[in-house]
Amino acid sequence: MTARTEALLRCPVCGAPFARTADGKSVLCLGDGRHCFDYSKSGYLNFSRDGKTGDAKAAVRARSTFLSAGYYQPLCDRVDAVLSETGAGTVLDAGCGEGYYTNRIAPGRTVLGADLSRDGIDRAAREARRSDSGAGFAVCSLFAVPVADGCFDAVINLFAPCAEAEFCRVLKPGGYLLLVGAGVRHLMGLKQVLYDEPRENPGRADLPVGMTLVRRERLEGEMTVAGQEMIDALFSMTPYYWRTCEHDRGKLRGLTELKTAYDFDIFLYRKDCEG
Protein backbone atom coordinates (compact mmCIF):
# COMPACT_ATOMS: atom_id res chain seq x y z
CA MET A 1 0.00 0.00 0.00
CA THR A 2 1.40 3.38 -0.97
CA ALA A 3 1.84 6.20 1.55
CA ARG A 4 -0.82 8.25 -0.29
CA THR A 5 -3.38 5.45 0.08
CA GLU A 6 -2.43 4.84 3.69
CA ALA A 7 -2.96 8.54 4.44
CA LEU A 8 -6.66 8.17 3.57
CA LEU A 9 -7.22 5.54 6.27
CA ARG A 10 -8.79 6.22 9.65
CA CYS A 11 -8.93 4.01 12.71
CA PRO A 12 -12.20 2.03 12.74
CA VAL A 13 -12.22 2.17 16.54
CA CYS A 14 -11.67 5.87 17.26
CA GLY A 15 -11.48 7.59 13.85
CA ALA A 16 -7.92 8.88 14.27
CA PRO A 17 -5.40 8.89 11.41
CA PHE A 18 -2.63 6.31 11.22
CA ALA A 19 1.14 6.35 11.15
CA ARG A 20 3.29 3.47 9.93
CA THR A 21 5.33 1.81 12.66
CA ALA A 22 9.13 1.99 12.48
CA ASP A 23 9.43 -1.60 11.28
CA GLY A 24 6.87 -0.96 8.52
CA LYS A 25 4.81 -3.99 9.51
CA SER A 26 1.82 -2.21 11.08
CA VAL A 27 -0.16 1.00 11.24
CA LEU A 28 -0.71 2.66 14.62
CA CYS A 29 -3.50 5.15 15.14
CA LEU A 30 -2.60 8.53 16.59
CA GLY A 31 -5.55 8.59 18.98
CA ASP A 32 -5.33 8.00 22.72
CA GLY A 33 -6.09 4.31 22.25
CA ARG A 34 -3.07 3.77 19.96
CA HIS A 35 -4.95 1.02 18.11
CA CYS A 36 -2.66 -1.12 15.99
CA PHE A 37 -3.35 -3.11 12.81
CA ASP A 38 -0.79 -5.38 11.20
CA TYR A 39 -0.05 -5.75 7.52
CA SER A 40 -0.50 -9.30 6.23
CA LYS A 41 2.35 -11.06 4.47
CA SER A 42 0.72 -10.21 1.15
CA GLY A 43 0.39 -6.53 2.10
CA TYR A 44 -3.23 -5.86 3.06
CA LEU A 45 -4.78 -4.56 6.28
CA ASN A 46 -7.59 -6.42 8.05
CA PHE A 47 -10.03 -4.07 9.79
CA SER A 48 -12.81 -6.63 10.23
CA ARG A 49 -13.33 -7.64 13.86
CA ASP A 50 -16.88 -8.99 13.88
CA GLY A 51 -16.19 -12.36 12.26
CA LYS A 52 -18.18 -11.59 9.10
CA THR A 53 -16.69 -12.94 5.89
CA GLY A 54 -17.24 -12.39 2.19
CA ASP A 55 -16.87 -14.82 -0.68
CA ALA A 56 -15.35 -18.22 0.04
CA LYS A 57 -12.01 -19.30 -1.39
CA ALA A 58 -13.59 -21.48 -4.11
CA ALA A 59 -15.72 -18.59 -5.40
CA VAL A 60 -12.73 -16.25 -5.37
CA ARG A 61 -10.63 -18.78 -7.28
CA ALA A 62 -13.35 -19.33 -9.90
CA ARG A 63 -13.83 -15.61 -10.47
CA SER A 64 -10.09 -15.02 -10.70
CA THR A 65 -9.70 -17.85 -13.22
CA PHE A 66 -12.43 -16.47 -15.46
CA LEU A 67 -11.59 -12.78 -15.24
CA SER A 68 -7.86 -13.29 -15.75
CA ALA A 69 -8.67 -14.92 -19.10
CA GLY A 70 -9.86 -11.51 -20.32
CA TYR A 71 -13.53 -12.23 -21.02
CA TYR A 72 -14.63 -9.06 -19.19
CA GLN A 73 -11.80 -6.89 -20.49
CA PRO A 74 -14.26 -4.66 -22.38
CA LEU A 75 -15.91 -3.76 -19.08
CA CYS A 76 -12.56 -3.11 -17.41
CA ASP A 77 -11.56 -0.82 -20.28
CA ARG A 78 -14.84 1.08 -20.06
CA VAL A 79 -14.58 1.57 -16.29
CA ASP A 80 -11.06 2.91 -16.73
CA ALA A 81 -12.21 5.24 -19.51
CA VAL A 82 -15.12 6.65 -17.48
CA LEU A 83 -12.82 7.29 -14.52
CA SER A 84 -10.46 9.13 -16.85
CA GLU A 85 -13.37 11.25 -18.11
CA THR A 86 -14.20 12.28 -14.55
CA GLY A 87 -10.58 13.12 -13.78
CA ALA A 88 -10.69 11.01 -10.63
CA GLY A 89 -7.30 10.73 -8.94
CA THR A 90 -8.43 8.96 -5.75
CA VAL A 91 -10.72 5.95 -6.16
CA LEU A 92 -12.39 3.45 -3.83
CA ASP A 93 -13.29 0.07 -5.32
CA ALA A 94 -16.11 -0.92 -2.97
CA GLY A 95 -16.61 -4.67 -3.10
CA CYS A 96 -13.43 -5.32 -5.05
CA GLY A 97 -13.32 -9.10 -4.53
CA GLU A 98 -10.06 -10.50 -5.88
CA GLY A 99 -9.06 -7.07 -7.22
CA TYR A 100 -9.23 -7.75 -10.95
CA TYR A 101 -10.58 -4.29 -11.77
CA THR A 102 -8.80 -2.55 -8.88
CA ASN A 103 -5.31 -3.50 -9.99
CA ARG A 104 -6.02 -2.56 -13.58
CA ILE A 105 -7.36 0.92 -12.87
CA ALA A 106 -4.71 1.72 -10.22
CA PRO A 107 -1.73 2.90 -12.32
CA GLY A 108 -1.65 6.69 -12.21
CA ARG A 109 -4.25 6.87 -9.43
CA THR A 110 -4.47 6.44 -5.67
CA VAL A 111 -6.74 3.41 -5.31
CA LEU A 112 -8.07 1.44 -2.34
CA GLY A 113 -9.90 -1.87 -2.77
CA ALA A 114 -12.26 -2.87 0.04
CA ASP A 115 -14.05 -6.17 0.58
CA LEU A 116 -15.09 -8.48 3.42
CA SER A 117 -13.56 -11.53 1.73
CA ARG A 118 -10.13 -12.11 3.22
CA ASP A 119 -9.39 -14.72 0.55
CA GLY A 120 -10.30 -12.22 -2.15
CA ILE A 121 -8.29 -9.40 -0.62
CA ASP A 122 -5.28 -11.66 -0.10
CA ARG A 123 -5.31 -12.61 -3.79
CA ALA A 124 -5.77 -8.95 -4.76
CA ALA A 125 -2.84 -7.81 -2.62
CA ARG A 126 -0.57 -10.53 -3.98
CA GLU A 127 -1.39 -9.47 -7.54
CA ALA A 128 -0.78 -5.82 -6.65
CA ARG A 129 2.66 -6.74 -5.39
CA ARG A 130 3.41 -8.93 -8.42
CA SER A 131 2.27 -6.34 -10.96
CA ASP A 132 3.40 -3.29 -8.96
CA SER A 133 -0.02 -1.73 -9.58
CA GLY A 134 0.19 0.51 -6.52
CA ALA A 135 -3.32 -0.41 -5.32
CA GLY A 136 -3.93 -0.82 -1.59
CA PHE A 137 -6.34 -3.33 -0.09
CA ALA A 138 -8.31 -3.62 3.14
CA VAL A 139 -10.66 -6.21 4.62
CA CYS A 140 -13.70 -4.26 5.82
CA SER A 141 -17.42 -3.79 5.34
CA LEU A 142 -18.61 -1.62 2.45
CA PHE A 143 -20.96 -0.01 4.95
CA ALA A 144 -18.11 1.12 7.22
CA VAL A 145 -14.96 1.79 5.20
CA PRO A 146 -12.19 3.02 7.57
CA VAL A 147 -11.26 6.18 5.66
CA ALA A 148 -11.63 9.93 6.17
CA ASP A 149 -14.78 11.79 5.16
CA GLY A 150 -14.73 13.24 1.65
CA CYS A 151 -11.43 11.72 0.58
CA PHE A 152 -12.29 10.06 -2.75
CA ASP A 153 -12.93 11.59 -6.16
CA ALA A 154 -14.79 8.45 -7.24
CA VAL A 155 -16.20 5.19 -5.92
CA ILE A 156 -16.68 2.21 -8.20
CA ASN A 157 -19.17 -0.47 -7.22
CA LEU A 158 -19.25 -3.46 -9.57
CA PHE A 159 -21.78 -6.22 -8.86
CA ALA A 160 -21.63 -5.47 -5.12
CA PRO A 161 -24.20 -3.97 -2.71
CA CYS A 162 -24.68 -0.22 -3.01
CA ALA A 163 -23.96 1.37 0.38
CA GLU A 164 -25.21 4.81 -0.67
CA ALA A 165 -24.87 6.57 2.69
CA GLU A 166 -21.30 5.37 3.14
CA PHE A 167 -20.36 6.21 -0.44
CA CYS A 168 -21.70 9.74 0.05
CA ARG A 169 -19.64 10.06 3.23
CA VAL A 170 -16.34 9.09 1.61
CA LEU A 171 -16.87 11.02 -1.64
CA LYS A 172 -15.77 14.61 -2.07
CA PRO A 173 -18.50 17.11 -3.02
CA GLY A 174 -18.90 16.69 -6.76
CA GLY A 175 -17.38 13.21 -6.61
CA TYR A 176 -18.67 10.35 -8.73
CA LEU A 177 -20.18 6.94 -8.08
CA LEU A 178 -19.81 4.41 -10.90
CA LEU A 179 -22.20 1.48 -10.54
CA VAL A 180 -22.22 -1.64 -12.73
CA GLY A 181 -24.86 -4.36 -12.78
CA ALA A 182 -26.02 -7.14 -15.07
CA GLY A 183 -28.03 -6.00 -18.07
CA VAL A 184 -31.23 -7.75 -19.09
CA ARG A 185 -29.49 -10.17 -21.50
CA HIS A 186 -26.32 -10.77 -19.51
CA LEU A 187 -25.22 -14.43 -19.81
CA MET A 188 -28.42 -15.37 -21.63
CA GLY A 189 -26.54 -18.08 -23.52
CA LEU A 190 -25.58 -19.72 -20.23
CA LYS A 191 -29.17 -19.57 -18.99
CA GLN A 192 -30.47 -21.04 -22.26
CA VAL A 193 -28.34 -24.12 -21.62
CA LEU A 194 -29.35 -24.41 -17.97
CA TYR A 195 -33.07 -23.66 -18.05
CA ASP A 196 -36.06 -24.60 -20.19
CA GLU A 197 -37.53 -21.10 -19.85
CA PRO A 198 -34.67 -18.62 -19.28
CA ARG A 199 -35.72 -15.17 -18.10
CA GLU A 200 -34.15 -11.78 -18.63
CA ASN A 201 -32.34 -10.21 -15.69
CA PRO A 202 -34.37 -7.69 -13.65
CA GLY A 203 -31.56 -5.12 -13.34
CA ARG A 204 -30.18 -3.47 -10.20
CA ALA A 205 -32.74 -2.67 -7.54
CA ASP A 206 -30.39 -0.75 -5.22
CA LEU A 207 -29.73 2.38 -7.25
CA PRO A 208 -28.97 5.59 -5.31
CA VAL A 209 -31.85 7.89 -4.46
CA GLY A 210 -29.94 10.90 -3.10
CA MET A 211 -27.39 11.40 -5.88
CA THR A 212 -27.66 12.90 -9.35
CA LEU A 213 -27.68 10.49 -12.29
CA VAL A 214 -25.21 11.85 -14.85
CA ARG A 215 -25.77 9.12 -17.41
CA ARG A 216 -26.63 5.50 -17.98
CA GLU A 217 -25.09 3.37 -20.68
CA ARG A 218 -25.14 -0.22 -21.82
CA LEU A 219 -22.12 -2.27 -22.81
CA GLU A 220 -23.06 -5.33 -24.88
CA GLY A 221 -21.25 -7.98 -26.86
CA GLU A 222 -20.83 -11.68 -27.50
CA MET A 223 -18.18 -14.00 -26.11
CA THR A 224 -17.22 -17.63 -26.58
CA VAL A 225 -16.09 -19.26 -23.36
CA ALA A 226 -13.68 -22.06 -24.28
CA GLY A 227 -13.21 -25.30 -22.33
CA GLN A 228 -14.99 -27.03 -19.49
CA GLU A 229 -12.79 -25.48 -16.81
CA MET A 230 -13.55 -21.94 -17.94
CA ILE A 231 -17.28 -22.67 -18.33
CA ASP A 232 -17.35 -24.09 -14.81
CA ALA A 233 -15.50 -21.03 -13.52
CA LEU A 234 -18.05 -18.70 -15.13
CA PHE A 235 -20.97 -20.67 -13.74
CA SER A 236 -19.44 -20.75 -10.25
CA MET A 237 -19.14 -16.95 -10.09
CA THR A 238 -22.81 -16.34 -10.93
CA PRO A 239 -25.85 -16.38 -8.62
CA TYR A 240 -27.23 -19.22 -10.77
CA TYR A 241 -24.68 -21.56 -9.19
CA TRP A 242 -26.65 -21.53 -5.94
CA ARG A 243 -30.10 -21.52 -7.53
CA THR A 244 -29.70 -24.36 -10.04
CA CYS A 245 -30.63 -27.96 -9.27
CA GLU A 246 -28.18 -30.81 -9.87
CA HIS A 247 -30.10 -32.01 -12.93
CA ASP A 248 -29.80 -28.64 -14.67
CA ARG A 249 -26.17 -28.22 -13.61
CA GLY A 250 -25.42 -31.45 -15.45
CA LYS A 251 -26.34 -29.76 -18.74
CA LEU A 252 -23.01 -27.92 -18.66
CA ARG A 253 -20.93 -31.07 -18.38
CA GLY A 254 -19.06 -32.04 -21.51
CA LEU A 255 -19.41 -28.64 -23.20
CA THR A 256 -16.29 -27.60 -25.08
CA GLU A 257 -17.48 -24.04 -25.62
CA LEU A 258 -20.27 -21.73 -24.56
CA LYS A 259 -21.47 -18.81 -26.65
CA THR A 260 -23.25 -16.16 -24.65
CA ALA A 261 -23.96 -12.46 -24.46
CA TYR A 262 -22.37 -10.10 -22.00
CA ASP A 263 -24.57 -7.15 -21.13
CA PHE A 264 -23.56 -4.58 -18.52
CA ASP A 265 -25.62 -1.69 -17.17
CA ILE A 266 -23.30 1.20 -16.27
CA PHE A 267 -24.56 4.10 -14.15
CA LEU A 268 -22.62 7.26 -13.36
CA TYR A 269 -23.86 9.33 -10.41
CA ARG A 270 -22.57 12.58 -8.92
CA LYS A 271 -22.62 13.67 -5.30
CA ASP A 272 -23.93 17.24 -5.36
CA CYS A 273 -24.42 17.78 -1.62
CA GLU A 274 -21.74 18.79 0.88
CA GLY A 275 -22.44 16.04 3.43
3D architecture notes:
With 275 residues, the chain is an alpha/beta fold. The chain has one domain (3-270): Rossmann fold (3-Layer(aba) Sandwich). It has ten helices and eleven strands. It has helices at 3-6, 57-68, 73-86, 100-105, 118-131, 164-170, 188-194, 228-236, 240-243, 246-249, and strands at 18-20, 26-29, 36-38, 45-46, 90-94, 110-115, 136-139, 152-158, 171-182, 212-226, 257-270. The protein has an eight-stranded mixed beta sheet with strand order 4-7-6-5-8-9-11-10. Strands 1-2-3 form a three-stranded antiparallel beta sheet, with no helix packed on it. Helix 2 (57-68) crosses helix 8. The chain is globular and about 60 Å long. The model has no long low-confidence stretch (mean pLDDT 94).
Named CATH topology: Rossmann fold
What is the CATH C-level name? Alpha Beta
What's the mean pLDDT score? 94
Helix percent reads 25-40%
CATH architecture level-2 label = 3-Layer(aba) Sandwich
Terminal CA distance: 28 Å
Proportion of residues in β-strands: 25-35%
Number of helices: 10
Structural class of the helices, strands and pairings?
A: alpha/beta
Rg (C-alpha, Å):
19 Å
Question: How many domain regions?
Answer: 1
Oligomeric state of shown chains: single chain
Q: Summarize the main sheet.
A: 8 strands, mixed
N to C succession of SSEs: HEEEEHHEHEHEEHEHEHHHE
Q: Rough shape? A: globular
